[in-house]
Amino acid sequence: MMVDYKPNKEAFTLLEVLIAMAIFxxxxxxxxxxxxxxxxxxxxxxxxxxxxxxxxxxxxxxxQVQIGVTSGDFGDQYPGYAWERKVSEWRSNGLLKxxxxxxxxxxSDNWESEMSIYLFRPNAxxxxxxxxxAQ
Length: 135
Known about the structure:
The chain is of the alpha+beta class. The chain is about 35% helix and about 25% strand. The protein folds into two domains: about 35 residues; about 80 residues, Pantoate--beta-alanine Ligase, Chain: A,domain 2 (2-Layer Sandwich), CATH 3.30.1300. The chain has three helices and four strands, in the order ααββββα. It has a four-stranded antiparallel beta sheet, with helices on one face. It is elongated.
């Protein structure tokens, strides 16, 4: 007895399977890249480094701001890191610009972070600022 062979019309062709596999692998590699980038970012956030924001908060909370350059280190809290602050009069009328720089010292990573803020202190000195504060 002879069986009549009829091709199944509901099966996938080889081209359709290859296209589906290509889409699958492209999406898997994109997800893996995204995951590894997120892990790198999380690792960078866990690095215990000082931030210039801390220096800015300390300066903004004081009543007296001295124009000039000061520097120091963080002591035992962040060994191997130092900071520098430069306060200067910006334009006039008691507006000050404070530039902060936090950097590593004696370390192999050569890390640095900078930040600037503006403060209004009419009594801080300078040309017009001191005249306004003296009234």
